[in-house]
Amino acid sequence: xxxxxxxxxxxxxAVEWTSLPPEFRRLxxxxxxxxxxxxxxxxxxxEGPIYVPALDLLFVTDIPYGxxxxxxxxxxxxxxTDYDGEPNGLVWNHITKKIIIADFKQGxxxxxxxxxxxxxxxxxxxxxxxxxxxxxxxSADGVIYFTDQGMTGLQDPTGRVFRLxxxxxxxLLISNGPSPNGLVLSRDEKALFVAMTRDNAVWYxxxxxxxxxxxxxxxxxxxxxxxxxxxxxxxxxxxxxxxSTLGTVFVHAANGELVMKAKSPRGAHTTNLxxxxxxxxxxxxxxxxxxxxxxxxxxxxxxxxxxxxx
Length: 310
Description:
This protein is mainly beta. The chain contains two helices and 28 strands. Its cofactor is Zn(2+).
């Protein structure tokens, strides 16, 4: 039995850092809650955290009410923008110094965090509207990968993953995804990890030199009613996967082995996560249903992208 115990993954406890203040909570119905939450009343549904080092701010989205908030190091919340959309994933474009938004309703948007100007980058592919973007990640040279989830699942495995080049070219990489969600690039940017929520798995997607993909496989599999949602990676190459209904962040070594779990102290809807603080060694986790931001002091730095030295 001792050997079995020693082989189990380590379990660490996240702690509550801050929650959406009462003045920003709006209990009611929205298109998001009617269509995706079966008519459940929501006062918010937080998602898409990113940390912007130049501003020392954490940004999060509120899907049902089309809002983006910033949170400073003292846990003060500020409403950045409020618009007719359903913003989900965010990524910081280190080249343009803008926030890129995966918006389920409006497509891929760009937000200037200083001027608050909001504009559409992509809303269609080959003339048709996108299904409903969910999350995104950016490479060192400014190529954006995003998931187009819509209402896909095992009943309709037509979710998509796109590559958006800085010149505006849009390339379809995956067209058979059962609810593609969070994603991260490998540290050498030669592979993509994609959370397929309704497959309850993370797919491993090799990126070939000619821009194509092939021999996609499952990197890890899970269980439960929901599935893997947001993802992150640390400097050691560990892949961190937030599970949307288990209140758990699963931590996998680069070979897929489960080595650690980070557990939520409040709520089971751990939907997304990101690295933050000036030292980039704090893991922020969003618990969406309670609109709470959790944190874990990580043992190493988080990984965002490769530098020009590598």
